[in-house]
Design goal:
The chain is about 35% helix and about 35% strand. It is α+β, with helices and mostly antiparallel strands. It is elongated.
Amino acid sequence: MEANNITISKEVRNIGTVQIADDVVAMIASLAATEIEGVSALVGNITNELMSKVGMKKLTKGVKVDIIDNVVTIDLAIVLEYGFNIPKTCRMVQDKVKTAIETMTGFTVADVNIRISSVSMQHGKNEKR
């Protein structure tokens, strides 16, 4: 599978062009999402899960990126930790991902769509609340 590269149309003093691969945008989104307290992990499709079992880990699993005319749409599949407010945590993830991508790439983020795939009970069992 060939990675898509997006060329930023702004040229600075005619010294060349900058290309950003879709995987770079996905990586930014993935790292930004996992920085939010309450997000346990991102989840990928069955192929990504099987490949991670045999040692080939991909940090962009659970992230789908669409870039059209320098406008980005992100789809994230995440696992939340038990005990966190789902709407509040998702809003924080959306804000963090949008800000990170716009700051680092100069693209405009139109949508950050989140799918909660499961809730992790691991942290809830060990903590007294």
